[in-house]
Specification:
By secondary structure, the protein is α/β, with parallel strands linked by helices. It has two domains: about 1-130 and about 295-375, FAD/NAD(P)-binding domain (3-Layer(bba) Sandwich), CATH 3.50.50.60; about 135-295 and about 390-470, 3-Layer(bba) Sandwich (FAD/NAD(P)-binding domain), CATH 3.50.50. A six-stranded mixed beta sheet has the order 8-5-4-12-24-23. Helix 1 runs parallel beside helix 11. The protein is globular and about 70 Å long.
Length: about 475
Amino acid sequence: MTLSASPRPQSGSKQIQGQTKPTVVIIGCGFGGLEAAKALSGADVEIIVIDRTNHHLFQPLLYQVATAGLTAPAIAGPIRHILRKQIARGNLTVLMGEVTSIDSASRCVVLDGGEHLHYDHLILAAGATHSYFGRDEWAKYAPGLKTLGDAFTIRRRVLTAFEQAERETDPDKREPWLTFAVVGAGPTGVEMAGTLAEIAQHTLSAEFRRIDSRVARVILLEGAPRVLGTFTEDLSKRAKEQLEMLGAEVLAGAKVTNITAFGIHYDLSEPQPDGSNKVSSHFVASRTVVWAAGVAGSPLGRSLAKSTGCQLDRAGRVIVKPDLTIEGHPNIYVVGDLASAQSYLHPDKPTAVPGVSPSAKQMGRKSAFNIMRRMKGLDTQAFRYFDYGSMATIGKRAAVAMLDLPWGNKKLKFSGFPAWLFWLFVHVYFLIGFRNRALVLMDWAWAYFSSQRHARVFPDPHALEPNAVIVHRDPPATPPVP
């Protein structure tokens, strides 16, 4: 079965009001897919956007949902509502469904119901998923944070851990419930660890009778020598200091070797005076582990590689040409987290494009721009990424920021309260829709002055996850070895 908004001519293009229009299929409505759809909406093309969910998600603030600081509608909006103006123009169709494979020979994508959807141009913006570095069995014990479902799972596990601690009368059995481990000290891990420490120290400090939430441990484990490795060393050091001021424990050089329902095993590498490293093995009993250590390209990248012979990098991302297409298929573009791309801002010295939302937006717009150039018979252009800097929030009044200045190849670096204010207004500005901005500002203002988080509700865990690890109260007498 072939899906089409109207009968498709033999050429594969759609016939609209007597005119033949090429069809552009966009897979994924994250930052890259959304920008591509908007940029193409005024072109003489038929656009079909496919996403497995009905909403666009502002991922940089997803950890706020996971830690009960924001509700889901504050950072997510229905795709159809966001693109309502483009839909009204009459050339954009939105479909909710999952693309299971790509058939480049017949120029079709296959949906979860078996339907075949034709394209003349394809933009693959399917994003990324979690990578457990070959240890996928860790996923059930250490959920990652990519979707609203992930955020709800983490929120439930964090809040339920405090509830289980309140029920536990044995101090030794209570301690693992009050120990929270975050694996990976990139921006997401740092933000999660800092917020968990704030919850324990302030939000819940007066709400339990049998326990004192302030004794909870929040441990951040990072395999590299320092946190926020993409930032400068001085900002990395400042971030570590701010985390420790909030009460979090930072373990740099800690490589996880195993994760179970009862805790986390890791090897800690410590520099010695003679220049060598001493490696020691450790186990931390923890019933709540959050994974923020690795990402991998969407499985659709493998499907594309199988169909087209394109190359993937070690993380499963599609290696693209300078114009964001793949070798041998000038009508297939890959953008966002799924693309292993380089920036040609300086053509003689291309640089790797980071997997962040600004780069996804710019790639989405560039892919749309190149499609329109090809339709006019013009050569496509190489992608040029404009990096405006990086930011990471650590907690209330604590953040680090590194901004690229437009002159002198210099960076503006600052931290603490000024960086936190800057981070706040930048994220509010980039949220989609006035209602979302207003909601977030009100929620953050309330949290700032009261230290409270109003979104601390979750459905019955037994209804959602009948076999959830969190409900098993009694670990074995001896924790399992790696």
